[in-house]
Amino acid sequence: MNPSTLASPGLFTVEGLVGVVFLTMAAITLIGGMIACNSDRLVRSLSGLVICFVGVAGLYFLLNSPFVSMMQILIYVGAITVTISFAIMLAAPEEKRKIGPPSLFSGPLGFIAAALIAGGFATLAVRTEWTVHEKINDGSMKVIGLQLLTDHSMVFELVSVVLLVAILGALVIARQGREQ
Amino acid sequence: MAPLALYNSLETYLVIGAMLFGMGIYGMVTRRTLIGMLIAAELILAAASINFMAFNRFTAPDPATGQIFTLFIMAIAAAEAAIGLSITIAVYRHFKSIDAEDTAQLKG
Question: What span, in angstroms and rounded, lies between the C-alpha atoms of A50 and A81?
Answer without folding.
Answer: 7
